[in-house]
Design goal:
By secondary structure, the chain is an alpha+beta fold. The protein is built from four helices and eleven strands, in the order ββββββαβββββααα. A hairpin with a 2-residue loop joins β9 and β10. The chain has one domain: Beta Barrel (FomD barrel-like fold), CATH 2.40.380.10.
Length: 178
């Protein structure tokens, strides 16, 4: 099923063992060599069991589509002004599209570029705890750690798509919402 700019899509993230996690609606923006770009306009409701937040800044997400599993086992969110970070990348199972819904398992491990432009790994402790407690298979652990290292370097060194590639997609979002 082909998606067009402005189509409504859904992001469904679970935790290991098919436990519910973040879910949110988004707008499909388009695709390029890096993958499928989606948007979370101001006012987007993001919810998980026990928590619901409403975005106060524009955000553009990327569902990677090219490369090996290590190159695709993540979901990135790029924040516009007014956010609490610039870039947030969840290490996941390889995301997959099911019609208008993208699904992935969040593996707790994140790479973040803060407002001060410092890039760091977040929730390593949560990942280490859950990989034992929830019994992540060895190949899932290896994939998450290899992906973390690849993404950390890419964000820190401003390799595509972490080099400003999201900016034109904010323009597409503006054309759809203003």
């Amino acid at each position: 099923m082909a998606l067009s700019a402005g189509d409504a899509v859904r992001v469904v993230m679970t935790k290991w063992g098919d436990r519910p996690h973040w879910e949110m609606d988004a707008l499909y923006l388009g695709a390029d060599h890096a993958g499928d770009w989606i948007a979370f306009p101001v006012g987007t409701v993001m919810s998980r069991p026990g928590v619901s937040v409403t975005t106060t800044n524009e955000q553009v997400g990327l569902v990677p589509s090219a490369g090996t599993a290590v190159g695709r086992a993540w979901l990135a969110t790029f924040h516009g002004p007014g956010g609490n970070v610039w870039t947030y990348v969840d290490m996941t199972t390889v995301p997959s599209w099911h019609g208008h819904t993208v699904r992935a398992v969040d593996l707790d491990l994140d790479v973040v570029e803060g407002l001060d432009r410092v890039v760091y790994v977040d929730d390593q402790d949560e990942f280490d705890e859950h990989r034992v407690e929830l019994g992540y298979p060895r190949e899932v652990v290896d994939l998450a750690m290899a992906t973390r290292d690849l993404v950390l370097t890419a964000v820190r060194d401003k390799h595509p798509p972490f080099d400003g590639s999201a900016q034109p997609w904010f323009d597409v979002l503006h054309s759809l919402t203003r």
